[in-house]
Amino acid sequence: MSIEENIKHVLNELKEGTTLIAVSKTRNIEEMEHAYDMGIRDFGENKVQELVDKYDKFHQDVRWHLIGHLQTNKVKYIVGKVHLIHSLDSIKLLKEIQKRFKAKEAVANVLIQINIGEEESKTGIYLSEMDELIDECAQCSNVNVRGLMCIIPKGTEEENRKYFRKMNNIFQELKNRSYENISMEILSMGMSGDYKVALDEGSNMIRVGQGIFGPRNYK
To answer: Cα separation of 214 and 47, whole Å?
Structure first.
């Protein structure tokens, strides 16, 4: 199917109030134009360099999402360019975001990335670290936590559902707490292979790359 047909297919499956992020990592501007012409305005990149490069070359009304791991030494490059950072995963990174955004009198909107499967190969905080990070976030003047993000372990549909449901339970629990600078509006979970299950379990933001643009060519 074409990029246009893929987008129509995905959009037809979304509930009202759900955001589709077109994951454009390794994709060229021409491919991204197809998505833009279909009304997509949210694009996700894994690497800071690629996001910054495309920021200058693509439409200015696009909302850029940094969905990959963010190194502290790269934060300074995305101030004023990124709509939402999906991958806050440490107090050290939080402090760097606060410092860099405050210096430019900007506010960073972020999601806390939870390593829900506690996989050593993945970034994100463990649940046992979440309260400490949230307490630190509440002290920040230039960082707003807007919700949670996860990348779940590969598994069966049943296993996927279990992790997504657990994430939604955490999301709902945090919604009932009251903190400075923290609101639970966004639950970013679900990618090309599992977004339907994620939507069933409460996701309101999905990140779809191959499901829109087709298989990736890494050459």
So the answer is: 20
Amino acid at the residue 184: M
Helix (H) or strand (E) holding 2: none
CA 163 remoteness from chain centre: 17
- Phi/psi zone of residue 108: left (φ > 0), alpha (ψ -120 to 50 degrees), beta? beta
For the four alpha carbons of 202, 51, 153 and 12, in that order, the dihedral sign comes to positive
CB 3 within 8 A of CB 28: no
Q: What is the dihedral of CA 149, 210, 38, 184, to 10 degrees?
A: -10
The model's pTM is 0.95
User: How large is the greatest C-alpha to C-alpha distance in the chain, in angstroms?
Assistant: 48
Q: How many CA atoms lie within 13 A of 25 on its CB side?
A: 16
Q: Tell me: the pLDDT tens digits for 149-169?
A: 999 999 999 999 999 999 999
Say which residues have a Cβ less than 8 Å from residue 58's Cβ, sequence separation at least 6: 29, 32, 36, 43
| Residue 30 three-state SS | helix
| 157: helix, strand or coil | helix
Give percent helix, percent strand, percent coil of the chain, each to the nearest 5. 40, 20, 40
- Spatial contact of 123 and 87, defined as CB atoms under 8 Å apart: yes
Give Cα 80 to chain centroid, integer Å: 17
